[in-house]
Design goal:
Blueprint lengths: L2 H13 L4 H12 L7 H5 L8 H12 L6 E5 L5 H10 L2 E6 L4 H11 L6 E5 L12 E7 L8 H11 E14 L5 H11 L5 E2 H11 L2 E7 L1 H25 L6 H15 L3 E9 L1
Parallel strand pairs: 1-2, 1-4, 2-3, 4-5, 5-6
Antiparallel strand pairs: 5-8, 7-8
The chain binds S-adenosylmethionine.
């Protein structure tokens, strides 16, 4: 990834309406203070993917996550799913997150709810993961690999850090056929989508890395409705974040999101949940 491309992805999340500051401002407004926060207090605010806690449970099932299971969350964001998996399942999480504000933001939210012993945050690029080979039982990721130019490198890194028999389970955008050039440009400018895999493309990359038992579930139908609701949530959040003085996203984000909803609802772009075993 070139430096300007990396910076575009970083800047996109710097402006993103879901931020540590926005979550803390909301909690302060709701509770009057930030003392004695519990993990459950955050779950309504800190899940930056499509489908909320229900889909994190599904991913946990696919990845074999249970008490004591060592999990790497690739592109962990503010670590919402990681904290949920540590709290609800007793798993041990390592979050890999590129953004220089989101990584410390994730660590701060984790400390505030007393989960720092089970959720650690490493600021790094998922194309070069600073973890030892074979040290993880599971690798997960949600709605993030669209930002990463070399999906093959990410999948090879997941394979390397998993123990034999370890599982990968992730969700991402996937295209049903090539989009128009203008759509790739819109999705890059507004949502920092570097490249989009096809369903077969993902299967091929996993097989090439050495994964077996590859399952690809088409989520396009479910995502159509979820994205519409999410877009409405972002439009509301835009007003709220402006009032709070926290990042609101820019015009390109909202224009791009509108196009994303259309592309998914018309079935040209979709979602996929991939599961595989090392
Ligand atoms: C949509 S958020 C998903 C966050 C989290 N998975 C969740 O569900 O709440 C995508 C995250 O991927 C991160 N990211 C993008 N490119 C990355 C890379 N190459 N390496 C690590 N993190 C990256 C972004 O900074 C952002 O925080």
């Amino acid at each position: 990834m070139s430096q300007p491309e990396r910076q575009h992805v970083v800047d996109f999340y710097r402006r993103h309406p879901i931020s540590r500051e926005q979550i803390l401002a909301r909690l302060t407004a709701q509770r009057g203070h930030l003392d004695d926060l519990a993990p459950e207090d955050l779950f309504e605010h800190d899940q930056d993917h499509y489908g909320g806690l229900g889909v994190v449970d599904l991913l946990a099932q696919r990845a074999g996550i249970a008490a004591g299971v060592r999990v790497a969350d690739f592109c962990a964001g503010l670590a919402g799913p990681a904290r949920y998996l540590a709290h609800r399942y007793g798993a041990i999480l390592t979050c890999i997150e590129l953004n220089p504000e989101r990584a410390p933001g994730a660590a701060d939210l984790t400390r505030r709810v007393g989960l720092a012993g089970r959720v650690r945050v490493v600021r790094a690029d998922v194309m070069r993961v600073p973890l030892a080979s074979g040290c993880m039982d599971a690798v997960i990721s949600q709605e993030a690999l669209l930002h990463v130019p070399d999906k093959g490198a990410v999948i090879a890194e997941a394979f390397r850090i998993l123990r034999p028999g370890g599982r990968i389970a992730f969700t991402d955008w996937a295209e049903h056929g090539p989009l128009e050039a203008g759509d790739y440009r819109t999705l890059w400018e507004g949502i920092a989508a570097q490249s989009i895999q096809s369903y077969d493309g993902y299967r091929g990359l996993l097989a090439q890395a050495g994964f077996r038992d590859i399952l690809a579930e088409d989520l396009t139908g479910q995502w159509g409705a979820i994205l519409e609701q999410r877009f409405a949530m972002y439009r509301k959040l835009r007003e709220e974040t402006r009032r709070l003085g926290t990042p609101s996203g820019d015009e390109a984000f909202y224009a791009s999101y509108a196009r994303l909803v259309e592309l998914v609802q018309s079935g040209r772009l979709g979602g996929v949940r991939i599961t595989a075993v090392k």
